[in-house]
Specification:
Structural class: alpha+beta
Number of helices: 3
Order of helices and strands: HEEEHEEEEHE
Largest sheet: 8 strands, antiparallel
Number of strands: 8
Radius of gyration: 23 Å
Mean pLDDT: 78
Shape: globular
Low-confidence stretches: none
Length: 225
């Protein structure tokens, strides 16, 4: 992680200076503890241990805008080995967003944005029926509305007080589930619940779930207006 972070900073910092990019950095640490009963002798179990370094890059001119967001995640959990740094301290590098937007493309009312973006339609407390284009990130159950960017083409038509937005996503993008929401685990829970209604003991030995995603063909595109 240290070598990777050093390499990223060695490349990004000179690039930001040369291109006059605006860069902001945010450091977050999240440690969560579960307190099990009884209260007089609780067992303090670490349920979440994560640190993030979020880097945001922005560049704007009269005719265009560029934006990128990079998230360096360090998981403070035991790894699977002892022979490398990534084994004892697992980490991830996530590109949350990276896009370029162009203003007044051919017409004064037309803006075009291309790249990995998070587009949210409508508002709701939790699940939003109209917000179906960009996938969700359910890996953290306490951050229910976190999104994953999708590669897309976005067109905004500014007609006075009204803006019409069109989205074209050439490849289907999946949401990220929490580990407890894995399909085989969910099916096994439902099966055990159904079997518990029978008066005799029935053993559930194996559960397998076949997950199929749309093929990467242009005919499986997603679009909305």
């Amino acid at each position: 992680m240290k070598k990777t972070l050093s390499l990223i900073m060695a490349v990004l910092l000179p690039a930001c200076y040369a291109l006059a990019l605006d860069m902001t950095a945010e450091v977050k640490t999240d440690v969560r503890v579960l307190m099990d009963t009884p209260a007089y002798n609780p067992e303090y179990q670490i349920s979440f241990n994560r640190s993030d370094l979020v880097l945001k890059f922005n560049q704007s001119t009269d005719n265009m805008k560029g934006y990128a967001e990079l998230d360096l995640v360090s998981w403070g959990v035991p790894g699977t080995g002892l022979l490398s740094y990534s084994d004892v301290s697992p980490y991830e590098i996530r590109l949350n967003e990276a896009y370029a937007g162009f203003y007044k493309v051919g017409f004064d009312f037309l803006d075009i944005t291309v790249g990995k973006q998070v587009v949210s339609w409508g508002t709701a407390d939790k699940l939003n029926q109209t917000d179906i284009l960009t996938p969700y990130d359910f890996s953290d159950p306490l951050d229910f509305n976190k999104r994953i960017g999708a590669n897309m083409l976005r067109a905004d038509v500014n007609a006075g007080p009204v803006t019409v937005q069109g989205i074209f996503i050439p490849v289907f993008s999946q949401s990220l589930l929490h580990s407890s929401m894995a399909p085989d685990i969910m099916v096994e829970k439902q099966a055990l619940k159904a079997l518990s209604a029978y008066p005799v003991d029935v053993a559930l030995t194996d559960v397998s779930v076949l997950q199929e995603n749309p093929e990467m063909k242009i005919e499986n595109y997603m679009a909305g207006v």
